[in-house]
Design goal:
By secondary structure, this protein is α+β, with helices and mostly antiparallel strands. Helices cover about 30% and strands about 30% of the residues. It contains seven helices and nine strands, in the order βααββαβαβααβαβββ.
Length: about 250
Amino acid sequence: MDLNVTTLAERPELEGAMWSMKDLWPEFMMYDPVGWANMGRIVREFPEYVLVATDAGGAVVARGFSVPFRLDAEGRRELPSRGWDEVLNWAFSDLRHGREADTVSAIEITVHLDHLGKGLSHRMLAAMRENAGGRGFAELVAPVRPNGKHLEAEASIHEYAFRTREADGLPHDPWLRVHVRAGGVIESVAPASMTVSGSVEQWRKWTGLPFDADGPVEVPGALVPVHCEATRGYAVYVEPNVWVRHRIA
C-alpha cells in the first residue's frame, strides 16, 4: 500500500480528517480525564510530533501521537507506573517550565478501521521512531496498550506482558510483538496507566451493560475488569499498560 506519512505541522489541513477517522477505540476510553484535557493540546503545541498517514488518493488512513519530555529529572529517571497519564502530565509540565526534553514517548498509534491488518501499525511505529531520531532524540518509549489483553481480562498484566511464543520467543501479544520486531525492549509494567471513573449511569451508556451489582465487570475492549460499586453509584476502570523502550541512536 502506498503510504505518505507527514507531520501535522507540515500538513495542518489534515487535522479534521485525522480526528474523524473511523477506529476501534471503546467509547469509555474517551473519558480518561488526562487524555480528555491533553490530546487536543498535543495537536496545538506539539504538531511536529503528530504523524498523519494518507493513501495514494490522499485519504487519511492512520495517525500517531507522541510527546517530548524530560526523563532525566528529579523524581523521575524511571518510566512511571502511571504510564500514559503520567507521561502526558510530564510533557506539558516540561513545556510550561521550559525544561529541555531528552526523550520522546509514543501516545497513540491508530489505524483506520478499513485498513486494519495491512501492516500500517508497523509502518507508523517506524515513522515515529524516525521522526524522534530526526529531531535529535536517542530514545522513543511507549506505554503500550496490549491489544490482545482484553481477551484475557482476568489475567495478570505482569505475566501477560512478558509472555512469549514458544516457536520464536516473541511476545504473545500482537502489538507488543510489533514493538519488539521494530527493536523495542519490554521494560516494565505501568499498572495504573489510565483511570476512567464515572457514575453507573455513565458506564451503562458507554457500554450497554447493566452495572447493577457490586464487584468486577468485564467490559468489551477493557484490559482488566471494571470495578463497580453499584450501591454507591459509581464504577472505576484502571488500565495497565506495558512500557517498551526503543533505542534510536
